[in-house]
């Protein structure tokens, strides 16, 4: 049946009204922030500051209880509220909140807020657990500590002194296709990699052990012989050497003892004792307290400061370098060659008169270079390292005729190196106080190449309050100010106690006291 005239007349009008109503609904803008509930002490504080229309504005996230000390916080449009059981709930806003953030939030030296902002004359202040932030129109927000924080966060980069070649930097450059010559000449400004025949077959005296009254030397797969004065005694078993109370060096071979001011030990199949038996000797305590194993050269055992002094006399190129353990042998051939040339140059520069402090040319540890002898040379994975050493020298039979070295204006350089630096390497002047023309600061970014796989491109450690106070010799440390050189090396660190007493250390001194990886760091 057809619609009545009245229905026909009203239907279009109703439809238009409905459409208009829907358009109004659809055009209404949603709130700028989703509605997040506030509750508990945080909700009470928010309400006391005017709620959604107050200083903080509406919440922009839920309440989260994930902070240290089992504490909670909630973010708002213009700031945040933090709550702890010890301090209650307090809001932070604006420049003061930014300054707190820069100091490390609640994990920084200030700790949690203990008040809201308040006016004091021309200043706006806010109290924290360990201090205060004061804002003025002229100076902005300044942090003042009134209590010593429980700890300090130290963030740094690099490992070692950072002068000369960076080993991880060299690795990054080798991965990028650079040669050993290019690598070394990058890190040693103005230096050249050259081939020299002088001292190619020279011997080097390496200190293996000192500070002990007794040491045991044991031959493996052959025999050894002890030379004391005009006597030579052979043995196929261990020999014990002692420094006696009368001040002599005594060797016990079997049931007999032989004494002198010093003695020499040789073993079969070396350049000192030709034989077909490839003998090695084990020296107790020679490698940081552990037994060291050696294939080449001979041992000279004398006295130093009322204890024994054990020296391994080895051929520098053929016998010493293969036993250097300063870089993983799995790295690229060009970076291994860089290390071989640097290690050789360092050793060459230390030839000549022995050091009075050790009766040696070099130490077997990082004070010079880490020398593990046969332990490293004969390791199953050391083949690439031995090849790198061989590739950087020429031989004729068993004699080394020439070798590649780093020189500056014709003289051997001091070929120092370290694991890695920060954004730049450091100059010798920055670290040791004396300028060296080829040891200047250069781009250190290669250690940060992804291909370098440097685990110390950046690092972070926490120093306890007690450790920091002990390092500076203060009752406590309230704050630390760091001054750096242009390369990022920490020049000085000034600590201030709660009572205002100050003490300063060099960056390297603090690095040593806190056992940090490098002297490129910041303290918060």
Automatic annotation (TrEMBL):
It comes from Brevibacterium aurantiacum. Keywords: Signal. This is LGFP repeat-containing protein. It holds the Pfam family SpoIID. It comes from the Bacteria. Coiled coil: none annotated. InterPro entries: LGFP, SpoIID/LytB, SpoIID/LytB_N. Residues 306-396 form the Sporulation stage II protein D amidase enhancer LytB N-terminal domain. Residues 1-34 form the signal peptide. One of its GO terms (biological process) is sporulation resulting in formation of a cellular spore.
């Amino acid at each position: 049946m057809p619609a009545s005239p009245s229905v026909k007349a009203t239907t279009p009008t109703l439809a238009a009204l409905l459409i208009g109503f829907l358009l109004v609904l659809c055009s209404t803008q949603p709130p700028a922030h989703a509605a997040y509930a506030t509750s508990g002490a945080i909700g009470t504080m928010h309400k006391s500051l005017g709620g959604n229309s107050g200083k903080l504005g509406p919440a922009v996230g839920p309440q989260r209880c994930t902070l240290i000390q089992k504490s909670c916080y909630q973010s708002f449009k213009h700031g945040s509220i933090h709550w702890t059981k010890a301090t209650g709930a307090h809001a932070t806003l604006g420049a003061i909140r930014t300054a707190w953030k820069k100091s490390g939030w609640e994990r920084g030296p200030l700790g949690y807020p203990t008040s809201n902002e308040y006016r004091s004359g021309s200043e706006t202040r806010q109290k924290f657990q360990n201090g205060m932030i004061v804002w003025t129109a002229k100076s902005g927000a300044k942090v003042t500590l009134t209590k010593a924080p429980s700890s300090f966060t130290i963030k740094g980069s690099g490992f070692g002194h950072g002068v000369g070649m960076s080993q991880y930097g060299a690795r990054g450059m080798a991965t990028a296709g650079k040669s050993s010559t290019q690598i070394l000449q990058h890190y040693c400004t103005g230096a050249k990699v050259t081939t020299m025949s002088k001292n190619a077959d020279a011997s080097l005296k390496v200190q293996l052990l000192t500070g002990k009254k007794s040491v045991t030397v044991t031959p493996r797969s052959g025999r050894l012989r002890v030379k004391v004065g005009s006597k030579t005694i052979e043995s196929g078993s261990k020999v014990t050497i002692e420094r006696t109370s009368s001040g002599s060096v005594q060797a016990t071979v079997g049931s007999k003892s032989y004494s002198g001011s010093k003695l020499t030990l040789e073993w079969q199949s070396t350049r000192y004792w030709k034989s077909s038996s490839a003998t090695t000797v084990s020296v107790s305590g020679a490698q940081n307290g552990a037994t060291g194993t050696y294939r080449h050269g001979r041992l000279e055992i004398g006295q130093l400061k009322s204890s024994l002094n054990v020296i391994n006399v080895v051929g520098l190129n053929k016998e010493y370098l293969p036993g250097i353990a300063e870089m993983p042998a799995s790295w690229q051939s060009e970076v291994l060659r860089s290390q071989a040339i640097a290690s050789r140059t360092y050793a060459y520069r230390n030839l000549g008169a022995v050091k009075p402090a050790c009766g040696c040319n070099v130490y077997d540890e990082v004070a010079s270079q880490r020398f593990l002898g046969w332990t490293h040379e004969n390791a199953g994975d050391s083949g690439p390292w031995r090849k790198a050493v061989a590739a950087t020298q020429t031989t004729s039979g068993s004699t080394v005729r020439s070798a590649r070295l780093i020189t500056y204006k014709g003289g051997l350089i001091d070929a120092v190196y370290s694991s890695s630096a920060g954004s730049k390497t450091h100059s010798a002047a920055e670290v040791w106080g004396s300028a060296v023309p080829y040891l200047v600061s250069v781009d250190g970014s290669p250690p940060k190449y992804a291909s370098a796989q440097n685990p110390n491109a950046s690092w972070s450690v926490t120093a306890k309050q007690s450790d920091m106070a002990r390092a500076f010799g203060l009752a406590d440390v309230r704050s630390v100010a760091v001054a750096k050189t242009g390369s990022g090396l920490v020049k000085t660190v000034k600590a201030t106690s709660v009572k205002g007493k100050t003490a300063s250390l060099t960056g390297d001194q603090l690095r040593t006291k806190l056992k940090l990886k490098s002297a490129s760091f910041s303290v918060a």
